[in-house]
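Re: Re: ligand-bound prediction request (bumping)

Still looking for help on this. To restate: I need the protein modeled with 2-acetamido-2-deoxy-beta-D-glucopyranose bound, output as structure tokens. Inputs repeated here so nobody has to scroll up.
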Amino acid sequence: MAGAPCAFLLFLLMVSQPRDASPFTVSCLPVSMNGILGESVIFPLLNPGAFQSITWHGPSPANAEAYASHRPLAVITPGAPGALPHVSMEDERYRGRARLHNQSYSLEISNLMLADVGMYSWETATADSNIFYSYDLHIHKQLSEPEIRIQSMMAGNGTCNVTFTCSAGEGNKTIKYIWTRSAGAPVFSIEESVLVQHRLGDEDSPVTCTAMNPISNSSASASPKAACEGPTLPQAMSLPYCHAKGILVLGVLGTLLAGILTVNVLAAWEQRQH
Ligand SMILES: *[C@@H]1O[C@H](CO)[C@@H](O)[C@H](O)[C@H]1NC(C)=O
Ligand SMILES: *[C@@H]1O[C@H](CO)[C@@H](O)[C@H](O)[C@H]1NC(C)=O
Ligand SMILES: *[C@@H]1O[C@H](CO)[C@@H](O)[C@H](O)[C@H]1NC(C)=O
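Reply:
Sorry for the wait, this slipped through. Here it is.
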């Protein structure tokens, strides 16, 4: 499958070449490129120097009508001596998004869309060679924080089985998952789901899922203890606070009581004096 576009280009070369043509070179190893949705990609071109033409092709449109009328992404031909080369860019799909870099004629496509995936190639013709070079463009989204789904179940004897399932984009085959136990610890699973056993009352040992695609990665963590025992209040913090509050209230009540008693006793004592 990967060879098909090359074969197609080779065929194009053969039919477009006069029979008595000078020797030519074909370089036909599609290079894989990863683009980020909404950002730019630059396809480099090896400028041959004195060229007869440089042609950039975009992916073939899937739609038959669009296919019939589609043009090369860019065609560059030398101008008159001393004048600038002539550049024609007529592929509607890239209007306002494609530009050629000065001197090199490398192709930059900005504001990448999912529909931009596919084979891009350049073709340079000089007096004695024709060179093809192709790129296989993949488009990826920047990953956001993965979602971790939790299923816990008591397995008897104070043990709880928790299954964590990580997701950073449903059905996206380019996303890989790695589960780790704590920073720097060895990877303990590369599945989407992982089963963790937690003994009730044991220390917590959070798990971290890192979702990765060729252009980004993102992590989220979950707690087996919280999954099995429910979210716990920070006990160590709340108890001294309650005690302190209780002592304060008791202190205030005590002072008030002492005050009231003193006033009453004094009043009674004074009455008795008269
Ligand atoms: C809990 O996990 C262990 C280890 O994978 C398994 O042998 C056991 O059957 C599980 N128990 C339940 C109730 O799912
Ligand atoms: C339950 O846990 C105790 C203490 O860890 C262990 O001695 C016992 O063998 C366990 N029983 C079962 C059925 O797993
Ligand atoms: C995750 O992405 C950061 C940059 O955002 C990179 O430095 C790091 O190496 C990546 N980690 C993995 C495991 O790919």
